[in-house]
Amino acid sequence: MKKLQLLLTGxxxxxxxxxxxxxxxxxxxxxxxxxxxxxxLSIREGDNVSSLDQFQNLEELTIYxxxxxxxxxxxxxxxxxxxxxxxxxxxxxxxxxxELHSLELRTNGMTDFPAEILSISTLKNLVFIEPExxxxxxxxxxxSHLESLQLGGRVYTAEPESFKYTGTNVxxxxxxxxSISTLKxxxxxxxxIGAIPEWMYAKxxxxxxxxxxxxxxxxxxALLDAERSNMLSIGVDSKQGFDKDTAKRIREAKxxxxxxxxxxxxxxxxxLIVHTYYFN
Length: 280
Description:
Layout (H helix, E strand, L loop, with lengths): L2 E7 L15 E2 L13 E4 L16 E5 L16 E5 L16 E5 L18 E5 L18 E3 L1 E5 L6 E5 L17 E3 L20 E3 L10 H5 L6 E6 L6 H13 L3 E6 L5 E6 L4
Parallel strand pairs: 1-13, 1-15, 2-3, 3-4, 4-5, 5-6, 6-7, 7-8, 8-11, 11-12, 12-13
Antiparallel strand pairs: 9-10, 14-15
């Protein structure tokens, strides 16, 4: 049976690198710990870190509000998850020497997509939210183990319970993504993309597509009518401006159940499931 799940989101997106072990060390606390026991490390504003050579068992590393990457980052044999954000770091040549599973680069002022990312053959999860980058190369299709790609997300503003969508400044996606058989989740929230790419219609592996804050105003019938072997969840914002047909479909589902899960038969045997989440 063909299925579609449509998500109207009003909750904070969880980061791909969110799952962590019980103990998370801030660098300022390290003097109280044996460096051999540090598997997850956070380096934040004010931390003066010159080298990471002593953390040979490090598996997850977060670097925020730093101007430079500490020496020794390319000599961590167990490092699998790396997150760099709000920094002045533009030279990421060290990525060529890492066998990462997850990489997050967020608002670092980058103007180009780093070619070094394309050399990480082990990469499964990529978060790349750099608003000044306007092109993702077709060679990204060579990341044959990629499972999730996040190019945008939601950030809270100073006003209480207020947020905005921030995304990489791309207006389209590389068609080579269609060739990655492992790719199941794509998040383009906040990107200036005006239409769901046609190559997604027949991509059977795709199970999650997030489009809030984009210029997308329609869910194409070709996507809804495509024969699918799995459930496809499409995340949209509750205030997103859709065309008449898409808006009607959402209104009908909300009318049946304004909060939570609503189900109805939606023609040609397709099941439509709508989750609605709102702030009070």
